[in-house]
Design goal:
The chain is α+β, with helices and mostly antiparallel strands. The chain has 2 domains: about 190 residues, Ribosomal Protein S5, domain 2, CATH 3.30.230.10; about 140 residues, Alpha-Beta Plaits, CATH 3.30.70.890. It is about 40% helix and about 20% strand. The strands form 4 sheets. It has a 6-stranded mixed β-sheet. Strands 2-5-10-11 form a 4-stranded antiparallel β-sheet. Helix 3 packs across helix 4 and helix 8 runs antiparallel to helix 9. About 50% of the residues are buried. The chain binds (3R)-3-hydroxy-3-methyl-5-(phosphonooxy)pentanoic acid. (3R)-3-hydroxy-3-methyl-5-(phosphonooxy)pentanoic acid binds next to helix 7.
């Protein structure tokens, strides 16, 4: 396991701080939702309108070190550079929550390195906040079981609640508002790993998205006449998806995932003003997926809040799918993922 430690990367910025000694390093992987989370019923507690279901990937890990310091403020380094003000505040707010729960006051130095594209609709915030929650809870000695860690990660980024766990994971919408909703909205693994699919990630654009998922969700919920119908149908998709995974029915899993994602994008397109993450390249990849199906390959697309398309298929078909997507155009750079592990601390020899 390779990672950049706080001491490697940022000795200069520590000039006015003193390391207190508590340090933890965690790794987490992104997840791709097969039934999407889109829309919050409570923005400050990150309570979703609907439940969602994802698979955690085995590629693009994020490694995050949290080290307690005796300094005037938190120091946040993302991918080797000082975090931009907005990202810094997001991490600081998250650390404030951890400090409040742990009854601690020390600031921290956070060094986080993503191996996948950041902010491009490939779940970098999911792996990022799952790794941060895991490392920060350990560094501040917060007593948190996996469910509590999932609820904590949710407060950084909703989808991060799912990356605490490996394999197929459901995130329960939870019941009620305020503390009741907070306690009942967590993710948990659902098994079903025997399905063991491949997910071919067709990266068509590495750039960060112009509209954040937070803003896009807000606008879709507030203005799209298609939002409520999508949310209602998504609740049904979730029930059917769980059954399809349990019976290892890949075509059904794929069909539900594809209709759920396209419905989510349709609800965004109907927002005022419209939110359009899909690019001509995304549509070309969707056409490539249809062509694969016409050729008898069980391949199904899903798309998050960005132009990149991920294609679900059987493990045995992954190479054929990747080759077909590459043939769509030289803008497609496919990578194949499988079911991956949950977030974990790195200790001892692995460090
Ligand atoms: O957790 P956020 O704020 O990055 O939102 C994730 C939204 C989607 O990726 C589009 C869907 C999902 O369930 O992951």
């Amino acid at each position: 396991m390779t990672f950049t430690s706080a001491s490697d990367i940022d000795a200069d910025r520590l000039h006015d701080t003193e390391v207190i000694g508590d340090e933890a390093v965690a790794v987490a992987h992104p997840n791709i939702a097969l039934v999407k989370y889109w829309g919050k019923r409570d923005e400050s507690l990150f309570l979703p309108v609907t439940g969602s279901l994802s698979m955690t990937l085995d590629i693009y890990p994020t490694t995050t070190t949290v080290r307690l310091i005796d300094g005037p403020a938190d120091v946040v380094m993302l991918n080797g550079s000082t975090a931009a003000p907005e990202a810094h505040s997001r991490v600081e707010r998250f650390l404030d929550l951890v400090r409040t729960r742990a009854g601690r006051t020390e600031h921290a130095m956070v060094v986080s390195t993503n191996t996948g594209p950041t902010g491009a609709g490939l779940a970098s915030s999911a792996s990022g906040f799952a790794a941060l929650a895991t490392a920060a809870a350990a560094a501040y000695q917060l007593d948190a079981d996996p469910r509590a860690l999932s609820r904590l990660a949710r407060r950084g980024s909703g989808s991060a609640s799912r990356s605490i766990f490996g394999g197929f994971v459901v995130w329960h919408a939870g019941a009620g508002d305020g503390p009741a909703g907070d306690h009942t909205s967590y993710a948990e693994p659902i098994g079903g790993d025997a399905l063991d699919p491949a997910l071919v990630v067709a990266v068509v654009d590495n750039a960060s998205k112009a509209v954040s998922s937070r803003e896009a969700m807000r606008r879709t919920c507030a203005t799209s006449p298609f939002y409520r119908p999508w949310a209602d149908s998504s609740a049904i998709d979730l029930v059917e998806m769980r059954k399809a995974i349990a019976r290892q029915d890949l075509p059904a899993v794929g069909e539900i995932a594809e209709r759920n994602a396209l419905g989510m994008h349709a609800s965004m397109l109907a927002a005022r003003p419209a939110i359009r993450y899909l690019s001509p390249q995304s549509i070309a990849v969707l056409d490539g997926v249809l062509a694969l199906r016409a050729d008898g390959v069980a391949a199904y697309a899903t798309i998050d809040a960005g132009p990149n398309v991920t294609v679900l298929c059987a493990r045995a078909d992954a190479q054929r799918v990747a080759a077909a997507l590459r043939a769509v155009g030289d803008f497609v750079d496919p990578r194949t993922a499988h079911l991956g592990p949950g977030a974990a601390l790195i200790t001892g020899a692995d460090r």
